User: Fold this.
Amino acid sequence: MKIPKHFKSGFIIIIGRPNAGKSTLLNAMVGEKISIISPIPQTTRHQIKGILTTKEYQMVFVDTPGIHTFKDELSSHLNGVAVNLLEGCDLIIYVADVTRKIGAEEKKAADVIKGSETHVIVAFNKMDKKQNYLKQHIEFWEENKKQNKCKIDYLPISAKEDKNIEDLICLIKEKLPEGMPFYDEETNTDFPLKFRIADQIREQLFLNLKKDLPHSIAVEIDEFEDGDKLCRITVAIYVNRESQKKIVVGEKGEVLKRVGITARENIEKILNKKVFLKTWVKVLPDWQKKAGILKQLGY
Ligand SMILES: Nc1nc2c(ncn2[C@@H]2O[C@H](COP(=O)(O)OP(=O)(O)OP(=O)(O)O)[C@@H](O)[C@H]2O)c(=O)[nH]1
Ligand SMILES: [Mg+2]
Assistant:
């Protein structure tokens, strides 16, 4: 690609409390499902980049785990991911969920960006929902702006319904510095393929299981045999206890089967070929607390 004279490029970090719609927004801006989405908070565990390149600019969006107030090894790691990324980025998008009142997590997130010199765009998300606390959110950020002298712009959006996403991209473009692209124009993510595939299974587990259980689950690709027409994948699903294994497998294996079918379809879309997917569930007590295991899983 020939780079025009005033080409713009930069890193845009997407932060916000869990479940605000950060991953939905990343996917909407890039125009492809890069990051997994679920109604359960703390879905995203990795720092995932989605890249949008045109003739005029390259935007590297970084999806982050939601900023929250839980305490364990995995949770503090996830908070750390979001916070560390703020250093050295070109722009911050703060995704606010206007269907929820300002809470402790919102205040914690605002504190995180307080010290930052970087320009912030607050995207008031889920505007498609009637019941919302937009006014309260605007007041909260106005107050922050006044007290901390942050550079803040606002925009109401609906990531799910693709409303005002173009306007948001225009606003981002305005704020981006001039610079060379970081990735070639075909690349739309740098999220390693194996983690992306493992996440497709995790997404289906989130969608098929009750609220708390998915947080006790990790998924690892055991075998990956990529043929010309067929890809064979074996996946290990780790849970903490035998009782959880029973739930994940389901009666006569029906939960695991349902998870496997949809995950396989989604993986086929990513790989553009037929997939043979084998899943097995393994009990691994307290995997969240074991640094070695976390590393192996890419956290
Ligand atoms: N009504 C509505 N729902 C939305 C919108 N954006 C996201 N959602 C829903 O909100 C839920 C959470 O979306 P995610 O994109 O996974 O949220 P997240 O901020 O990435 O969450 P974590 O990864 O857990 O921090 C999902 O059920 C989405 O479908 C929106 O604009 N309108
Ligand atoms: Mg997410």
